[in-house]
Amino acid sequence: MFVYGTLMRGYALHLLLARASKFLGEGRVHGRLLDLGRYPGLVDGVGSVRGEIYRLDDPELLAVLDRAEGYNFGRRRTIVTLASGRRARAWVYRYRGRQEKAVLIPDGDYRRAHPRPATR
User: Quick check: is 69 catalytic?
Assistant: First the structure.
């Protein structure tokens, strides 16, 4: 699972991942990152988004994460480029909701845009 916002270490929803996953490292995916207020959303576009990759140890965790992400986020496979340069396939949540009030995070790094833990 590739995460880029409030599921990352130190943020509000990370507890959902911490119980049944293993942190594998940092990486990037293609796309643009939008600041939606209390959380970000990954959308298609030119650029890259920075985040963390995890191995899920419990297949039922996907259903838990789907509920937590909500109807505006769809889970699909993507290619992640790890910090080492290696590529891997992973699940990622892409935002499919309204974008009128969204603000682009130009460098695709949620931690830089919101260095303190966010709540959702």
Answer: yes
